[in-house]
Amino acid sequence: MTHAYGEPSYWDQRYQSDPATFDWYQKYPSLAPLFDRYLLRHHRLLLVGCGNSALGESMVDDGYQDVVNIDISSVVIEAMQKKHMDKQGLKYINMDVRDMSLFQSSSFDAVIDKGTLDSLMCGHDAMHNATKMLLEVDRVLKDKGVYILITYGGPSYRLYMLRSIQRWAISLHVIA
Q1: Confidence of residue 2 (pLDDT cuts 50, 70, 90)
Q2: Distances (CA, A) of 133 to 3, 45, 79
Q3: Which segments constitute the Methyltransferase domain (predicted)?
Q4: Which of 19, 109, 151, 166 is the most exposed, having the fewest neighbouring CB atoms within 10 Å of its CB?
Q5: Residue 130 — very low, low, confident or very high, per pLDDT cuts 50/70/90?
Q6: CB 62 within 8 A of CB 39
Q7: Which residues pair with 99 in a beta bridge?
Q8: Which of 163, 53, 169 lies closest to 112 in space, CA to CA?
């Protein structure tokens, strides 16, 4: 069964009915050691499919200086912009991860994905949408940039997809 996870209306409805902060899979304290291996505090970071997660806020609180969050839902982006309007280094933009044309190529040191690829893989036209997303992630990453994928997808299946971007070196880390 597939869901309309690639449609803004699905997520707008979800965030209207349940505006409480929600973090998919892992919260920042369990991810911080992994981030410390690959990211520097001055890096320009993109969090895709941010929803109403506390991840970006926690990262800025921990010293990261430039965290850009995007989501397909205008409802959640408006709420997060309002909630964090005075937070330096934290920005929220309504954008579809499959079309990030507002960003120049090679403009981010890292892209962090906590469930967005998984969501697309559960939706309509999954492989097409996932490929569009990964190509856009590749485009916005700087040379030697890092794509951090936090997923519940099986490693063999996700690694197969990631290897389709032939310029990427891939490291697998398992987080309890």
Answers
A1: low
A2: 17, 16, 24
A3: 45-152
A4: 166
A5: very high
A6: no
A7: 96
A8: 53
* Six-digit token string for 170: 């891939």
Q: What does the alpha-carbon distance between residue 157 and residue 69 come to, in Å, rounded to a whole number?
A: 26
CA distance 147 to 51: 18
Type of residue found at 157: Y
Average pLDDT, whole number, for the chain? 91
Prediction pTM value: 0.92
Question: Please, which residues bridge with residue 148 across strands?
Answer: 112
pLDDT digits (tens, 9 = 90+) for 36-51: 999 999 999 999 999 9
Residue with tokens 């997808």: 153
Distance CA 30, CA 121 (A): 24
64, 87 contact by CB (below 8 A): no
**What's the rounded Cα separation, in Å, for the pair 150 and 47?**
11
Cβ–Cβ < 8 Å for 73, 11? yes
- What token pair was written down for 155? 């490693």
Q: What is the 3-state secondary structure (H, E, C) of the chain?
A: CCECCCCHHHHHHHHHHCCCCCCCCCCHHHHHHHHHHHCCCCCEEEEECCCCCCHHHHHHHCCCCEEEEEECCHHHHHHHHHHCCCCCCEEEEECECCECCCCCCCCEEEEEEECHHHHHHCECCHHHHHHHHHHHHHHHEEEEEEEEEECCCCHHHHHHHHHCCCCCCCCCCCCC
